[in-house]
Amino acid sequence: MISKAQVKEIRALATSKARAELQTFLVEGDKLCREWLERSEALPQIFAVPEWLERNQALLGKHPEANVFEATLEELKKIATQQHPNAAVLVAKFPILSVQLPTNEWCLALDRIQDPGNMGTIIRIADWFGVEHIVCSPGCVDVYNPKVVAAGMGGHLRVKMHHSPLPDFLKKCKMPVYAATLHGKTINQIEPQKAAVLIIGNESLGIQPELLSWVSEQVTIPKRGGAESLNAAVATGILLSMLVSG
Known about the structure:
The chain is α/β, with parallel strands linked by helices. The chain has helices at residues 4-12, 16-22, 30-39, 50-55, 57-60, 73-79, 116-128, 146-152, 166-170, 232-243; strands spanning 24-28, 45-48, 67-70, 88-93, 107-110, 133-136, 160-163, 177-186, 197-200, 217-220.
């Protein structure tokens, strides 16, 4: 049974203000909840139907610190943000990150990425290519937005999310810095790197011009058709596939 007070508190986590104040966010759905139970260090609250709790006793045993609540599907609908009914909803804690930004390993720098689907997919792509750090500029969508978490498909558990004005980060970089633009060198002209920064710009506005002064090379994806541009997440996947050294 979920109380009205709990419903109000959990539903508030749909807002970035409440997430920032409480330092917690929502994880929804069977697959993601099981992955968080497997890999996350601490989960304050777990809400699930009895059948789901029974099936996942072994994973639940890893989290004696969690408050576990049985709920009906109707009750879960009241706290979930996703349209389809979920068997489980978790409240997860923000990870504790070092204040030091990466200086010698691959990193994405995101300039005002605002679409939750793009942000989540970029996190998932970074996870795929083993890029463990993403630096988000002011103006980026909240990385713990429920839609970002859903699209990230567990990438939040492995990719460290940093927040910084990008000039502050870039001026300290000792690595090559690449900027994804429409007018740079084609990616097949760039040697893969063991460590570098790739800047991905806003979905419609691109990269702020003032950031280009910190860039080693502008890179672009060769175009054969008539499309004006690529989706930010799609471009990220193509670029990382060519730039990240194995």
